[in-house]
Every structure is written in structure tokens, then in C-alpha cells.
């Protein structure tokens, strides 16, 4: 899968821009605050219909404008597909092959991307919410069914929490309605837990040999899914998960009404990243944490290809400066001639010049983009 063309209209600090990309490595070169990360962000938004930098779509619209539009031409094994997203105060409108998509779930998956940025180190040492978001964003691209399941779960969870707050404030005493919401929560929540277990198991299997190679066979990485629903082990039987979920909610029923919120469910789940059976977030060095994050990102590439039949587009946002020479080398060698890659960087380091074969370089200054010829790169 490749992004062959990108067109922006009133996106961030770009008024109008149209760019053509090559199959290998494309580099966005520029100093800070010139717009190179905005360009990378636009590709991410085009793929996932949301930004990784802001929860407010209005932030994506150029100052003084009422709407923004991102268009692209995606090529995969089946052919070429035009896709676009338009943002305005009324919301967002997605199109595939120039046809409006009534649901974003039918749009996401047209362009699959994996982003690796400095903040992805939080995947290893950050809060559980960071890892849950990682699962939802990455697995959601690979599996449309999961995208629907997590969407339905969040909808019921929001409604159930709102009703628990009514019960807390004694504005209602209809426990029958709460039972209906609880039943729906268990149904969708069980599907989410089972799907996440499956994803983490597969990701761990792919990441294990990659991590071993990066660490020169000195360390072993494994992933363990931790469900908020008490399970004796990583049980994958739907009936067992459903029964355990039901019992856990029954035990917390009074507390949930007192606190006005749902205390049990996959919205509180997590997964642990272990190196030699030790939690790397607690006992790992910074180097080990970076190696683990790199291994997971590289594993995602292969897993997405396995699950969808297509390699994703890789976005590297100023991440090379965060890796030492050895990890830079491993990353660049792993992606060479494998996936279309977009890299933001303030300068072309020697290691980049040596390891990347004929990159296409776009120099960015104050929202203006200029393609640099290969002879200008040294």
C-alpha cells in the first residue's frame, strides 16, 4: 500500500499544496515550526480521520478559514483509489472514490499507517490509557469488526455512566434500565476483550524475534494482556469471559451507583511489556524501553501485512534523533525496500545518507514545500 499523491487545502499552516510521492523513502526536511510535522500529520489524519496531536478537529483548519480538506490517491494491489476528508464546524465528511461515506468505519482502512514518534516511548512507560489507545488505533485499521465492537462498547459505556450518575443523584431508580445497559456492556465488552487478547498475542509473537535481533539475542520480549475483568489466565473462551465480566459487575454494583461510574470493563484494561519476564516500564533502562518500543513498531508492520495483505505506510516523526546509531541502523535497514516511508528531520545525518537509497526530499520553510534534487543533498 502506498500514498502516491497528497493535496491539502487550508490545513494547519498550508494554504494550498499538492505533492507526489515515491515508493521508497520520502523525507520532509526543515527546521522546527516550519510545517514538516503538520505535513506528516495530514497523512495520519487522511488515514484515520483524526489527529494524533489534537482531539479538536478545528485545530486542523488554517487560521481564518472555515474548512480544511485533505485528499490523497492510494495505490494497493487492487488498484488506485482517491480518498478525501473535509473538516468544518459542521463536522467531517469522508469520501472514497468520490462517494460520501456515512460511517467512518467504512472509510478507515483505505490507507493504513503506522506512526513512530518520540512520544511513542510512552507506549512502554506511560499510563494504561496510552496502550489501550495503541490497540484501538492499530488493530482498528487491521480489523473492521473490532472497530465496530469498540465503537459500540464506548457508546453503551457512555450511556451507562450517564445513567449511573442519575442514580447517584437519586434522579432515577429504574434498575431495569440499568440491567439492559449492563447486558449490552457485557456483550460488547466481551468481544473487545477477546479481540484485544488475540491482537496482543499475535503482536507479541511477531515482536519476539525482532526484539531478539535488535538486542543481539541477549533479551527476550513478551507481551501479556491484563484484563480488568478478573480472569485466572489469558482465557480466550467467550463464555468464560462473559461469565467473569457478569460476576465482576455484580460485585461492584453498589460501588458503581455510589461513585456514578462503571468500574469494570475493557475501558480499564492494559497490557504489560516484559523483557526477560520483568516489566520494562518498572525495571527497564531507557535503552531497553526504546528497544522495546522500536520492536513493537516494526512488529506492527509485519502483522498488518499478515492481517490485511498489504504493508502499511510508515510515518517517522523526528524519531531518528531519539535513537542511537545502532537502533537507527536497525530501523532503516528493516524498512529498506519494504514499506513506503515518510520521515521528518531537521537535517540529513550521515547515517541517513548512507542507509537510505535515493530518498525523495521535500524541503519545508514556513509552509512552503520545495523538492530537492539528489545532487543538492550533500
Mean pLDDT, to the nearest integer, reads 90
Query: Would you identify the CATH H-level superfamily of the largest domain?
Result: RecF/RecN/SMC, N-terminal domain
Tell me the β content: 15-25%
The spatial strand order of the largest sheet comes to 2-1-4-5-6-7
**Secondary-structure class:** alpha/beta
- Morphology call: globular
Structural features, described:
The protein has eleven helices and 15 strands. With about 375 residues, the protein is of the alpha/beta class. The chain folds into two domains: about 1-110 and about 310-378, P-loop containing nucleotide triphosphate hydrolases (Rossmann fold); about 120-310, Up-down Bundle (Glutathione S-transferase Yfyf (Class Pi), Chain A, domain 2). The strands form three sheets. A six-stranded antiparallel β-sheet has the order 2-1-4-5-6-7, covered by helices on one side. The longest helix has about 40 residues, at about 175-215. The radius of gyration is 22 Å and the shape is globular. The mean pLDDT is about 90. Its main location: cytoplasm. The RecF protein is involved in DNA metabolism; it is required for DNA replication and normal SOS inducibility. RecF binds preferentially to single-stranded, linear DNA. It also seems to bind ATP.
Amino acid at each position: 500500500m502506498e500514498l502516491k499523491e497528497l493535496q491539502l487545502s487550508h490545513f494547519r499552516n498550508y494554504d494550498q499544496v499538492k505533492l507526489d510521492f515515491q515508493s521508497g523513502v520520502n523525507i520532509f526536511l526543515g527546521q522546527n515550526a516550519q510545517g514538516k510535522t503538520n505535513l506528516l500529520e495530514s497523512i495520519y489524519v487522511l488515514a484515520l480521520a483524526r489527529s494524533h496531536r489534537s482531539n479538536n478537529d478545528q485545530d486542523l483548519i488554517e487560521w481564518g478559514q472555515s474548512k480544511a480538506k485533505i485528499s490523497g490517491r492510494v495505490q494497493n494491489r487492487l488498484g488506485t483509489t482517491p480518498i478525501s476528508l473535509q473538516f468544518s464546524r459542521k463536522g467531517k465528511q469522508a469520501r472514497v472514490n468520490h462517494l460520501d461515506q456515512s460511517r467512518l468505519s467504512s472509510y478507515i482502512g483505505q490507507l493504513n499507517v503506522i506512526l513512530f514518534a518520540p512520544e511513542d516511548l510512552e507506549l512502554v512507560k506511560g499510563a494504561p490509557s496510552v496502550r489501550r489507545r495503541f490497540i484501538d488505533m492499530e488493530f482498528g485499521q487491521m480489523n473492521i469488526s473490532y472497530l465496530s465492537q469498540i465503537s459500540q462498547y464506548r457508546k453503551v459505556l457512555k450511556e451507562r455512566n450517564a445513567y449511573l450518575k442519575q442514580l447517584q443523584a437519586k434522579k432515577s431508580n429504574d434498575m431495569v434500565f440499568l440491567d439492559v445497559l449492563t447486558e449490552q456492556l457485557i456483550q460488547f465488552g466481551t468481544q473487545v476483550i477477546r479481540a484485544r487478547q488475540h491482537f496482543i498475542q499475535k503482536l507479541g509473537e511477531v515482536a519476539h524475534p525482532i526484539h531478539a535481533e535488535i538486542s543481539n539475542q541477549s533479551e527476550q520480549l513478551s507481551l501479556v494482556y491484563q484484563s480488568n475483568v478478573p480472569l485466572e489466565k489469558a482465557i480466550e473462551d467467550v463464555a468464560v469471559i462473559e461469565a467473569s465480566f457478569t460476576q465482576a459487575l455484580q460485585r461492584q454494583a453498589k460501588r458503581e451507583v455510589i461513585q456514578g461510574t462503571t468500574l469494570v470493563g475493557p475501558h480499564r484494561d492494559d497490557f504489560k511489556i516484559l523483557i526477560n519476564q520483568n516489566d520494562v516500564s518498572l525495571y527497564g533502562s531507557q535503552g531497553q524501553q526504546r528497544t522495546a518500543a522500536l520492536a513493537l513498531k516494526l512488529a506492527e508492520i509485519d502483522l498488518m501485512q499478515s492481517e490485511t495483505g498489504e504493508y502499511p505506510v510508515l510515518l517517522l516523526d523526528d524519531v531518528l534523533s531519539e535513537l542511537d546509531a545502532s537502533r537507527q541502523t536497525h530501523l532503516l535497514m528493516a524498512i529498506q525496500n519494504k514499506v513506503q516511508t515518510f520521515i521528518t528531520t531537521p537535517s540529513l545525518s550521515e547515517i541517513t545518507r548512507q542507509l537510505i537509497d535515493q530518498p525523495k526530499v521535500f524541503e519545508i520553510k514556513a509552509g512552503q514545500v520545495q523538492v530537492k534534487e539528489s545532487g543538492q543533498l550533500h
